[in-house]
Write a structure and sequence with these properties.
By secondary structure, the chain is an alpha/beta fold. The chain folds into 2 domains: 102 residues, Enolase-like, N-terminal domain (Enolase-like, domain 1, 2-Layer Sandwich); 257 residues, Enolase-like C-terminal domain (TIM Barrel, Alpha-Beta Barrel). Helices cover 37% and strands 17% of the residues. α1 crosses α3. The N and C termini lie far apart (44 Å).
Length: 400
């Protein structure tokens, strides 16, 4: 079997692009992968076009060797753009191998250790709306719920505080008081049985995060996701000395080496592995085993499309140390619905994983168990999309 083509398929799902990658072979078997670098699809496509030139003609079943060649056959190895492209290719190669052998991908990873993949949902909203959102999810059986920060002045998805020259204002110090107040209210309203967390999307400093945590009674939060940026592990170690809330970190990591200090120095309690950024199955399984040795559970990042979801389900099925999978299609949100009021993912992916209650069943379909309508995908054109540019009141740049 030989690789005959690698096709980037940028598709519009909901309100942004997703970059699906199709790897074709001379035996008519193809595999699908997905890149995790949202908003920089053209850069990833450039890397894919370069990789294509020397991958055509290779045996797609030699997955480990291809991973090493993609990573090491250049002087400037690694980085988020190259690993996003490499992740998509790696996932697609596992899809091909599974289909060629007639087995689901999880069998290639050692078999399944669970029959269903538990998930967590996200509730956001201003003040009482947040409480209502959490209660709505609970009424539908969700028992692990993530929340989002808010601002005091402007209701909305993240309750932003106005605009300066077209950029949205987010002032971290103004967010922590009201967010802490309403998280305490949520905990009081729903009791101690629900697992409750918040994703601060690396918008805070060490001091701001410590202040935020200190405003809530012990036991309010079960996890705190990405409160600060991850480039400096020592900053997280300083923050650990100031709070005992468990951390969930790693969604931006593009190699096992980036995970190294966070695992070896016990900085994170949940590994937010993104299979579409870390390097595909090849790297994700190494991180999983490493985390297992430190009693750290995976809590995978999954804000993309059905291909990412399908791949993560197989990884989650095959590892021992797993907590919950992020899912963004629930009673409180659906990232797949666009302006036309239709589920774009359903149009593009006629076969895809489907939630049953608050979990995904682990199916035995060969490969990833997902199919794309390529005519619908190729009928689209790449659309420019840029994440919001946020500023503080003084006009200085703030993390999104």
């Amino acid at each position: 079997m030989k690789i005959t083509d690698i096709k980037p398929l940028p598709v519009w799902v909901g309100n942004r692009n997703q970059l699906v990658v199709k790897v074709e072979t001379d035996e008519g078997i193809y595999g699908l992968g997905e890149s995790g670098l949202s908003g920089r699809e053209l850069a990833v496509i450039g890397a894919l076009k370069h990789f294509r030139e020397f991958l055509i003609g290779k045996d797609p079943r030699q997955i480990g060797r291809i991973w090493q060649e993609l990573y090491r056959s250049q002087y400037f190895e690694g980085g988020r753009v190259l690993l996003a492209a490499q992740s998509a290719i790696d996932i697609a190669l596992y899809d091909i191998l599974g289909k060629s052998l007639g087995v689901p991908v999880y069998q290639l990873l050692g078999g399944k250790q669970r029959d269903s993949i538990p998930c967590f949902a996200t509730a956001s909203g201003h003040a009482e709306k947040l409480v209502e959102g959490v209660k709505l999810l609970m009424a539908h059986g969700w028992n692990v719920i993530r929340t989002a920060p808010m601002m005091p002045s402007s209701p909305g998805a993240f309750n932003r505080g106005g605009f300066i020259n077209g950029s949205q204002i987010f002032e971290p110090r103004e967010s922590i008081g009201i967010t802490a107040k309403w998280l305490v209210k949520v905990r009081e309203e729903v009791g101690s049985e629900v697992t409750l967390g918040i994703d601060y999307h690396h918008r805070l400093s060490v001091a701001e995060t410590a202040s935020f945590c200190q405003r809530m009674p012990k036991g309010t939060l079960d996890f705190l996701e990405e409160p600060i940026r991850d480039e400096t592990p020592e900053a997280y170690e300083a923050l650990r000395r100031m709070t005992d809330v468990p951390f969930a970190i790693g969604e931006e990591f593009a190699s096992k080496w980036q995970f190294l200090p966070y695992i070896e120095r016990d900085i994170t309690q949940f590994a937010r592995v993104d299979i579409c950024n870390i390097g595909g199955f090849t790297e994700a399984m190494k991180v999983a085993g490493w985390a297992e040795a430190h009693y750290i559970d995976l809590m995978p990042h999954n804000p993309l499309g059905p291909v990412c979801t399908a791949a993560t389900i197989h990884m989650a099925a095959a590892v021992a140390n797993f907590a919950w999978l992020e899912v963004r299609t629930t009673q409180t949100e659906n990232l797949y619905y666009g302006d036309k009021g239709i589920n774009d993912a359903d149009v593009l992916f006629p076969v895809q994983p489907r939630l049953v209650g608050n979990s995904f069943p682990v199916l035995d379909t060969p490969g990833l168990g997902i199919e794309i309508d390529e005519s619908a995908a190729t009928g689209q054109e790449w659309k420019y999309w840029e994440a919001p540019h946020w500023v503080r009141h003084d006009g200085s740049v703030q993390n999104w």
